[in-house]
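Amino acid chain
________________
===
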Amino acid sequence: MNRTFAHLKKEGRCGLVAYVTCGDPGVDATVEIVLALAEAGADAVELGIPFSDPIADGPVIQAASWRALERGTTIDDVFAVARRVRAKSDVALIAFSYLNPIMRYEVDRFAANAAAAGIDSLLVTDLPPESAAGARQALKSRGLGIVFLLAPTSSDARVRLVDRSSDGFIYYVSTTGVTGARRDLDAKLVTRLEAIRGQVSKPLAVGFGISKREHYEALEDKCEAVVVGSAIVRAIADGEPSGAAERAAAVVRGILGRG
């Protein structure tokens, strides 16, 4: 991830991190979708590991996780997606998960297989840095990074801790609540970002609610990347599976102003 954000800094632009739920609408389709997202301009892709109780996610991603689980999607399938993508693309790959599936899989085994699959970093939404020493060591020993989250409610002490603990970048949650495309950004977001950027040394990627070109334009000089999830996941589900990759790519192109 350091390489990705160094490249963005060199080019002087705000990046885009795309999220997909692996296995929705299928494992083969997910590979096509990730490659299409990278071709459309995504600088990194979060590979969402489907989970039955995704407490930070809104209805769009919850439904996608349920569909993927009904199809039998496993963590090993997610690694298979990463391997197939890595064979064709150097787009940065972030495994996105809740803690429970990783604990059941076993942390050391997860880290080893993630590294072998070509994944760059891990983001665990419900793992705070205070409890992450074991996971960080397992990942670090295999050359993988870990990303932690900040929220509008984070204290100054929490900001400093997350800045010290995160590898590559910090995920900043734009608003309280769950994921989901929103019509308007939180009116206080820009002010909060200006304050946070003065306290951290790592790049900031802003997520939750980013869904259109106007959002990107409002944030592109306030953070190093935006994260787009529900808008992409909704587009994937909105039609026949054969057109899912193109619909997902169109969301990225629209947000980046590329057609």
Summary: Residues 177-181 have pLDDT under 50 and may be disordered. Strands lie at 15-21, 44-48, 92-97, 121-124, 145-147, 149-150, 170-173, 204-207, 225-228. The longest strand covers residues 15-21. DSSP finds twelve helices and nine strands in the chain.
